[in-house]
């Protein structure tokens, strides 16, 4: 059943409608601050762009995802006060915002139209998602009806994010008479998400003969990055307007509305590479995590290897060189090449650079352990000690100077446990947590196209943890080109070991990798969060029991 409202506008132009897409970065939980951002953005849209309607992202009032903040007893009061403030402002343009709204004792993920001091229309999201990183059914009830409101003589429908990906909500709004759909989104980035969004919007607009305004959230929130990329498709399914990704702003769309609302086409942004998209996501994820949590600076270990080289480049690009401290902590197995390359990277980026040897600490600890270790042969214990001593130094610098420790482990290493608990895993945020090793190499080369900061031999030499003489990663792992393919099938696509072998991989490699993934779940549970860039990262996406008797063959 359709709900219809009417509103007149003093600035109505004959057959024209100006919509501004407010692609903005909100702070989760900061309802007063987000309210002010909405008001200021609307004022700017009116003064600078003569907006008729300003459309904001999903749950912009609370930020997304608010998670268990939605269960706080004072939520309803805080939201009510914010909505009243938005109404009292009586701004010239209509505001279309996202907010959690209580109705009949239930909580809904709502889109609200505020104009002329009133809430003129409201819509309750009908398809709250409950997969991958989404957990909306924990909090929200489902809406059951479309909302179509009249504005300046045009019939406009509302939908929220997942409603677009399901059959029903948009179709029913179109059947109820809407010629223009406003879709509010908080859609997180992954490596081919924008292409999937475009394919969906093209089909939905064309099949239902409606124009669709798709407004997406921007910014980093814990492990998630929202990349913006707000878009408008016309009733034929043609992409008419696309906002830049990873760029905050107010983006204007003009509609000619004689028979149906038809967007005026604009020049589209250039296509970007996967490497550029992932790099931008990493930079945004690091910047927002550090800044939104109030850290002054970051500190990380710089080993001369490719992972830390890429991580320090991301950190410098995200925060500025003056907020990044890189620390080389050599030991007897650290090569001269690593020392040279680490210094070259730090100098090229202009970050603070220190060298602190862990040799005296190591000798002191080993002397303390001499009695219990008597009669035993060196093994990974001594290797892990090196990593843990480095963690002690980094965490001490963190405590003393208020810096966040960034870790540099990549997805391939974390998957198979090729990392040291309370060692190189110790820190507050993992820059490369969801980046497979093969992609690390590609990102390093991409970063050097912006400015040369990573020495060529860091990219080309065999990766090594340098915890033992002549050590190389591939001494204990399959080659990364093979490893990453197996991990993609097992971790991201849920293939069984047998199914992976059927894809042409060696049984010994598959069984070994699968076993390593399974037995290292306990490590990953204790790892810092990091930017999610794939469809399934080691975070909210993947929740496997640590203690279990599942056999991984079939």
Automatic annotation (TrEMBL):
One of its GO terms (biological process) is NAD+ biosynthetic process. Residues 17-257 form the CN hydrolase domain. Pfam families: CN_hydrolase, NAD_synthase. Belongs to the NAD synthetase family. The keyword Chaperone does not apply. The active site is at residues 58, 125, 161. Pathway: Cofactor biosynthesis; NAD(+) biosynthesis; NAD(+) from deamido-NAD(+) (L-Gln route): step 1/1. The gene is nadE. ATP binds at residues 301-308, 408. It catalyses: deamido-NAD(+) + L-glutamine + ATP + H2O = L-glutamate + AMP + diphosphate + NAD(+) + H(+). It comes from Marinobacter fuscus. The keyword Ligase applies. Keywords: ATP-binding, Ligase, NAD, Nucleotide-binding. This is Glutamine-dependent NAD(+) synthetase. Catalyzes the ATP-dependent amidation of deamido-NAD to form NAD. Uses L-glutamine as a nitrogen source. Its EC number is 6.3.5.1. L-glutamine binds at residues 131, 187, 193.
